[in-house]
Design a protein that fits this description.
Layout (H helix, E strand, L loop, with lengths): L1 E6 L6 E6 L2 E7 L1 H4 L9 H11 L8 E4 L7 H10 L4 H15 L1 H9 L7 E4 L2 H10 L6 E11 L2 E9 L7 E4 L4 H11 L8 H7 L8 H4 L3 E3 L5 E3 L12 E5 L2 E4 L7 H5 L11 H28 L4 E5 L6 H4 L2 H4 L4 E4 L6 H14 L19 H10 L1 H6 L3 E4 L3 H13 L4 E4 L13 E5 L6 H10 L8 E5 L3 H4 L11 E4 L17 E7 L5 H14 L3 E6 L10 H10 L4 E4 L2 E4 L6
Parallel strand pairs: 1-4, 4-5, 6-13, 13-14, 16-22, 18-20
Antiparallel strand pairs: 1-2, 2-3, 6-7, 7-8, 9-10, 11-12, 15-23, 16-17, 17-21, 18-21, 19-20, 22-23
Length: 584
C-alpha cells in the first residue's frame, strides 16, 4: 500500500511517501522552488517523491492531507458567535478550506497523470503532528504532544501512543496559543518574517528576564498548567492576520495590538539596532514560553505517567526549551520529530492514514535522510556545466574515489581555518542541515563565527552555530547524555570543555548539538572521526549549506552558493573543489 502525504497551501508546503509501512521519501517544496517556507501547493516535492519510489501516478490510491476542516466544528461555531470574525477573516477561512480540500484536482496536473483511483484522506492537523512524532520514535509506548500556532481550530494536542495505535485524547482550543504568543513577540522584537522565531531564541541568552512580570499579563498560566492568552493584546482571534502569499512566501500581518507597547515599550523596527532592552525582552519571552510549556507538560504527565515524550508542532523547533524538558518536567526521554513544523504534517498525515487503513507499525525514523541524492556522474555533469565560473574563481576540481583520502583533505582544510561545503548522500528532511547539505568549520577557533557570518551566512552576529558530535562522546562534552539526531535540543556544555570549542559555545555556555552515529550516518561519522583523530575534538561546527535561501538541494545549487561566497573547499560525492588562497 502506498500513501502520499501533503502539507498544501500553508507555510512549509511538503510531500512525503509511505510505502508498505516504510517512509521512503520526504521533501519540502522550498528546496525545489528556492522560495523559503514555500506556501503554495507542493507539486515538485510530490512529483519527486513518486519518481524516487518508482510509483506511477496513475496507480496512486491514497492521498492524505494534514487538515480536516470539519474538525471541532461545534467549538468553531460557538467561538464565532462569541467573537464574530471580520469579513476579511471569514473570507480567508473559506478560501483556505476550499484550497486544502481540492488537492486531488491540483495533484493531477502536478503529476502529469490523473489517478482515477485516488482517495483523499483528511487527517486532523494535530493528529498528523502526533503521528510524525510518536511513529517516528523508537518507542512502543509514549505520550505524543503537538504544540504550534493553530491548525483545525486547535493550538496544541496530546495522545498516548501504543504500538500502531494513536488517537487524539485532548486539545487546546484556538485562540489560546503558545505559537501565536511567540510569533507575535518575534514580530514585536522587529523580526517580521515567517520563521524568525529562532532569532529570538538566539538573542535571549544576552538578556535578563526583566519583563517576566509584564508578560504574565499577556500569557496567563493557571494552577492546572493550562495557559490562556489575554486577547486584549492580540489581533488573531477576530482579524485577518494571514495574508495572501507573496510569490509563494508566507506573509503575516501584525499579530499584536499597538496597545502592547504601553506594557512593554516601543516595538522595534526591523532596521533598528538591538539594545539591552530588546535582549531583556527576548529573554523574558523565552522564559514565559518555557514556564507555560513545562507546567502544561508536567500536568499532562500526571494524567499519563510515562517517562517518554514524543514532541512535534511548530513549537517543537524551540530547541532551547526542548533541552530543558528532562530537567524541568517528569519526562526522562525525549524524541523531537525531524520536521516538527508544518512540513512534518505531510509525513504525519501519510503515517496516520497508513495505520488507519490497517497497516502495521511503521519503521521508526532514526535519521532524516529522505530527500534527493545525486551520484558522482550527476555531480560531474554539474561541474562540467560550471567550468567557466569555477575557472574564473581560480578553483581546482579533483576526483578522489577513496573516501578516506577525501576526508583527509577536508580535515586539512578545516584545521587550517578553512570553511568547507559538504554535499553527500540524500538531502535532509526538516529545517536542519545534518551532514548531507552542510557547511563545516573548526569548532576550536573563536574567529570562525565572525568569519562565517561575514563571508558566507551574512546573518546577525548574535546567532550561534551548532556542533555535530560523535554520539559516543556526548557524555564527555555535554552535561546530559542524550540522543539528539535532528539538532532538536540545546544542552549545556561541560564547564571544563567550553574553552576548547568557542565557535559552538553560545553566550550561555550551551550548544544546539546533533548526535551522529556510524549506524545511521556512516559517511559523516567517518569525517568527524578523522577530525577527532587529528585534533582530539569529536565534533565539527555545522551550519546549513545556504546563503539567505533554502538549503541547497542539487549540485548546481551547491556550486552556485560556493562560487558566490568565500568557502574554501566543496566536497560533493567523490569530487573536491578547492579555491586557492587569494583567489577571486
Amino acid at each position: 500500500m502506498i500513501v502520499l502525504g501533503l502539507n498544501a497551501h500553508h507555510a512549509d508546503a511538503a510531500a512525503a511517501l509511505v510505502v508498505d509501512g516504510r517512509v521512503v521519501a520526504a521533501a519540502e517544496e522550498e528546496r525545489f522552488t528556492r522560495i523559503k517556507h514555500h506556501a503554495g501547493f507542493p507539486a515538485q516535492a510530490a512529483r519527486w517523491c513518486l519518481a524516487h519510489a518508482g510509483v506511477d501516478p496513475r496507480e496512486l490510491a491514497h492521498v492524505a492531507v494534514n487538515t480536516d476542516p470539519g474538525a471541532a466544528l461545534p467549538t468553531r461555531l460557538a467561538f464565532a458567535l462569541r467573537h464574530p470574525p471580520t469579513p476579511a477573516r471569514a473570507l480567508e477561512a473559506l478560501r483556505t478550506r476550499g484550497r486544502r480540500l481540492d488537492v486531488l484536482a491540483q495533484l493531477a496536473p502536478a503529476l502529469g497523470a490523473p489517478s482515477p483511483r485516488a482517495r483523499l484522506h483528511a487527517v486532523p492537523h494535530h493528529l498528523a503532528h502526533l503521528a510524525s512524532a510518536f511513529h517516528g520514535s523508537p518507542w512502543e509506548d509514549a505520550l505524543a504532544v503537538s504544540v504550534d500556532g493553530s491548525g483545525d481550530f486547535a493550538t496544541a494536542a496530546w495522545g498516548r501512543g501504543r504500538g500502531s495505535a494513536l488517537a487524539l485524547e485532548g486539545q487546546v482550543a484556538f485562540p489560546h496559543s503558545l505559537g501565536v504568543f511567540y510569533q507575535a513577540m518575534t514580530q514585536f522584537l522587529g523580526f517580521p518574517h515567517y520563521g524568525d522565531e529562532y532569532k529570538v531564541m538566539g538573542l535571549a541568552p544576552y538578556g535578563e528576564p526583566r519583563f517576566a512580570a509584564a508578560l504574565r499579563e499577556v500569557l496567563r498560566i493557571g494552577p492546572d498548567g493550562a495557559w490562556r492568552l489575554d486577547l486584549r493584546w492580540f489581533r488573531h482571534a477576530r482579524e485577518r492576520t494571514t495574508l495572501e502569499p507573496d510569490a509563494g512566501r508566507p506573509r503575516f500581518g501584525p499579530l499584536f495590538r499597538p496597545r502592547l507597547q504601553d506594557l512593554l515599550g516601543p516595538a522595534r523596527a526591523p532596521d533598528e539596532p538591538l539594545t539591552p532592552h530588546h535582549h531583556d525582552l527576548a529573554r523574558s519571552v523565552q522564559q514565559a514560553y518555557e514556564d507555560a510549556l513545562f507546567g502544561w507538560l508536567s500536568a499532562l504527565h500526571a494524567r499519563h505517567p510515562t517517562p517518554r515524550l514524543a514532541l512535534a508542532g511548530g513549537c517543537a523547533q524551540n530547541s532551547v526549551a526542548n533541552g530543558k524538558i528532562v530537567e524541568r518536567t517528569p519526562f526522562r526521554e525525549l524524541y523531537v520529530a525531524a520536521a516538527g513544523y508544518d512540513a512534518g504534517g505531510a509525513l504525519g498525515a501519510a503515517i496516520a492514514t497508513w495505520h488507519r487503513l490497517g497497516g502495521a507499525r511503521i519503521e521508526p525514523l532514526p535519521h532524516a535522510q529522505l530527500g534527493p541524492a545525486f551520484d558522482d556522474a550527476a555531480i560531474g555533469a554539474a561541474l562540467d556545466d560550471a567550468r567557466s565560473e569555477l575557472a574564473a574563481a581560480g578553483c581546482i576540481v579533483e576526483r578522489l574515489d577513496d573516501p578516506g583520502a577525501l576526508d583527509a583533505r577536508v580535515v586539512d582544510a578545516i584545521v587550517d581555518g578553512g570553511v568547507v561545503g559538504w554535499f553527500q548522500g540524500r538531502m535532509e528532511w526538516g529545517p536542519r542541515a545534518l551532514g548531507q547539505r552542510s557547511i563545516l568549520a573548526d569548532p576550536r577557533r573563536a574567529d570562525i563565527r565572525a568569519l562565517l557570518n561575514r563571508k558566507i551566512k551574512r546573518r546577525e552576529s548574535f546567532r550561534p552555530f551548532a556542533p555535530s558530535v560523535l554520539r559516543e562522546h556526548v557524555a564527555a562534552w555535554f552535561t546530559r547524555d542524550a540522543d539528539v539526531p535532528f539538532m532538536g535540543e540545546v544542552l549545556p556544555i561541560r564547564p571544563e570543555r567550553r574553552a576548547a570549542i568557542p565557535a559552538v559555545t553560545h553566550v550561555d555556555c550551551t550548544g544546539r548539538l546533533q548526535t551522529v552515529t556510524r549506524a545511521h550516518n556512516a559517511r559523516y561519522h567517518a569525517l568527524i572521526s578523522a577530525f577527532h583523530a587529528r585534533t582530539g575534538v569529536p565534533m565539527l561546527l555545522n551550519t546549513s549549506f545556504n546563503e539567505n535561501e533554502p538549503v541547497v538541494c542539487s549540485p548546481r545549487e551547491a556550486l552556485d552558493c560556493f562560487v558566490r561566497t568565500r568557502m574554501d573547499r566543496l566536497a560533493m560525492g567523490s569530487w573536491l573543489v578547492s579555491r586557492p588562497a587569494g583567489a577571486p
